[in-house]
Fold UDP-3-O-acyl-N-acetylglucosamine deacetylase.
Amino acid sequence: MSHPFERSGRSLHSGRHATVRVSPAPAGHGIVFRRRLKDGRAVDVPADWRLRESQPLSSAVRREGVLVRTIEHLMASLSALRIDNVLAEIDADELPIFDGSATPWCEAIRAAGRSEQTLPCRVIRLLRTVAVENGRRRLQIEPGDGLHISGHLALAHFGSVDWSGAITPEGFEREIAPARSFGRYLRAMAGRAYGFVRGTDFLQGVSPRSAALLVRGHVLGGMRVPDEPVRHRILDLIGDLALAGHPIEGRISAFHTGHELNHALVAALMSDSSAWELV
């Protein structure tokens, strides 16, 4: 990245306002979140699969007791637009959700510009197939050039929705980034009410402005791209894969995947050094 940028907005789960400043970092730095705490301290939390913590409907990392969550849309945008080294400073525990898509992050990254660094980018190249599954959910990656993802999802009143394609910077911005977080309208509103009553940070920022809300076989306000739900699952998957620390090359088949299965695949892959090589 050539220049820093700053973005602010409301967060999905806490409903609170957050400001993120994303700055270029030296080669080899990786993607690191710096959480500014109320007591004046700053704690760095690397975007590392080993620091991942399970959180409802989002991806999160925690270090030294400090949590940074809902990182998947920024992570996906940085990864797809091939930005390797940044420092992302945040004044809250959760990144903004904006409209539920990754387009605002992509626009900010494009405006900031891209600079090549002296060290070459190393990628994870698959040597054999790795797969994880949980009931009807299955996620596998096999050797292949570049990153190619085929996603499948079946939703009541919508039927089967599918998308398949190579993940390139231009294709990501056009085909994947506009797809918003989604959920059933009644369930989302019930979740928001539950979080409010219990005083927990759960879906307090959800609304038709921050997500694609489904009512039977329709999306309130319409879909932004065809088969928007499966494209958003692929968006989340790209962001979760980025916690591996290097770009991954391979062909991925994703059936009803979500954050938990995505992270299970990353953990299975990274824990088995015989399945890949760093080149």
The longest strand covers residues 147-155.
